[in-house]
Design goal:
By secondary structure, this protein is an alpha+beta fold. About 40% of the residues lie in helices and about 20% in strands. The chain has 3 helices and 3 strands, in the order ααβββα. The protein is globular and about 40 Å long.
Length: about 80
């Protein structure tokens, strides 16, 4: 896939887990980070990932030049 070749060329680390959706891999990485006390920021337009938001996990959803960061407080305010 061309995108993976570009990422390799730019030395951008990436991963894929055969047989699993990207959401599952992202969730696993976020969980591992928070278990180690490391904050995680997920950048995605996929609203399903908002279920991962927690004390150490934020989701940034880009919109054109801007975007919105979903923290636990924003998720609570927005969705109840």
């Amino acid at each position: 896939m061309l995108l993976l070749q570009v990422l390799d060329y730019l030395a951008v680390r990436h991963m894929a887990v055969p047989g699993y959706e990207a959401d599952d891999a992202i969730g696993t990485l976020a969980r591992q980070a928070t278990a180690a006390g490391v904050p995680a920021i997920i950048v995605s337009g996929d609203r399903d990932l908002l279920q991962l938001v927690g004390p150490l996990v934020e989701v940034f959803m880009p919109r054109g030049q801007d975007g919105q960061t979903f923290t636990p407080a924003v998720v609570q305010e927005t969705f109840g």
